[in-house]
Amino acid sequence: MTKLTLEDLRKRRDEKKKEMQRREPAKGSVEVIIGMGTCGIAAGAKEAFDAFLDELDKNDLGEVVVKQTGCMGLCYSEPTVEIRVPDMPDIIYGNVNDKVARDIVRTHIKEKKLVDDHIYDKPAADIVG
Question: What's domain 27-121's architecture?
Fold first, then answer.
């Protein structure tokens, strides 16, 4: 078994803190919510999830919160992803593979423009809280 130094432990702590910050939204922060129900996972939601994290890191967008949820009820368009950006409408994108995930980061989150060819729904007003 490898012995860990105090510096190794500090490094691991800092890495875990960074990972956890991605899951705790601050007021006014951008949120990416990925449907990770069984139908979403089977359709490739895990690959999309990983692509979002990678592209957010590449674009130095550490303030974006990435969360997962269960089924969004749009099984025909899995993987589904809800994007919440302040001063923009909440949007649910469908058929989000790794390429589309990267496009959403660059276009919707960074440039504040919708990715028209993958919009599937808007969250119902009665469930948006």
Answer: 3-Layer(aba) Sandwich (3.40)
